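Entry 14. Structure prediction run on the chain below.
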Amino acid sequence: MKLIFEKSVPGRHCSLLPKCDVPDAALPEALVRQTAPALPELSEVDLSRHYTELNQRVHGVNCGFYPLGSCTMKYNPRVDEDMAALPGFAGVHPLAPKDAVQGCLSVLDTAKTYLCEITGMDGMTFQPAAGAHGEFTGVLLIKQYHRKRGDFKRTKIIVPDSAHGTNPATAAMCGFEVVNIPSAPDGCVDLEALKAVLGDDTAGLMLTNPNTVGIFDENILEITRLVHEAGGLCYYDGANLNAVMGVVRPGDMGFDCIHMNLHKTFATPHGGGGPGACAVGCKAFLEEFLPASALMQGEGRLQVRSFMGNFLVVVRALTYLLTLGRDGIPEAAQNAVLNANYLMRRIQGTFEPAFDRVCMHEFVLDLSEYKKETGVSALDVAKALIDYGMHPPTMYFPMIVHEALMLEPTETESKETLDWAADVFREVYARGKTDPDYLHGAPHHAQIGRPDEVRASRNPVVRWTKP
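Output returned:
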């Protein structure tokens, strides 16, 4: 497939904008560019065909099963898009005076109320642009809390080895020393390892529950108690909130602040480089450190992003909340857990779960023994699934499980889809036993075969250069 720049023909164009109905305004000469922007020139039909061809080459939730572990690739209801497209929301100007945007402010305030109720928090901001940005904001709350108290010796953030990769990166970006602790054999936090690193230099703990291997840590109250007794705060990574929303609240588990990926748990657009959004909540004693927004004003408050964040994503999330309601939210979480356990048991007997116990919203398969027996790796299996029209699961994560495949089916998948997926896994398992070379070369029927990933990583081509 050619790049859009390669399809460009000088002078070709399509008229998409209406004729300007206001007088031209001349820019100062210093602000006028001397050369035309390097934009592709195409007709409308060529443009339409280009994006249609791109669509046919990608796999989204609207195309087929997408069990990408830890990403919660649930279906995004169309009603969310309809609400975000309402002129009163889509056409609002970020600099409009408050008396002209009371409806928008009501959306933010209502979303805050509902999400605080779901998480057990007291305050919230919607400024962060995405999950990792939300982590950064939340950990800065912890940092500012200790600073205001004059407790500058708290320089360490504890992160379990099963944490999301962004957790240690976030802590380091905020100026903390990262202290990794191992998991216990059951996949949960090793309490003795945690006790060994707690001290008067502990600023906090970053944790998600259920954790990255899909297990709800039964010691969570003891974990947060130990951290608090050491003088630290507890940060909840909300990436796995979909498993417990409306059922149990992070605030009741002992967490002091939280970020929520609105694109995961609350069904707003996911991926593709589009606008993300993240809600960061906290307990009342941290509210004074939240960044300034339309809902909270205060002298000396800083912003982590311009204006109120990506407002239309919050509109979509609130629509999702209102559609499901008080009963539908916990039902969605329970169905996510049911689907994950059903699929895990349907696959079992071929590829085995890393932790053979009731899981939450996701589970991890351990292909270590299968690779020893057949030479077929988790990567080979993941590539083979593409030929069946299935998006591969998350590979080699978490790192505490070798040859890991992590599956999260989400609550929006039907029993028929899960049965089909289990049959695919069983067929791939059997094929690897009899014809491992076939899997080594997979995918065989996709738009793109298996690329040289080492070369792509070491010599990436990330922009088009005119010949």
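Residues 311-347 form the longest helix (37 residues).
Filed with the rest of this week's runs.
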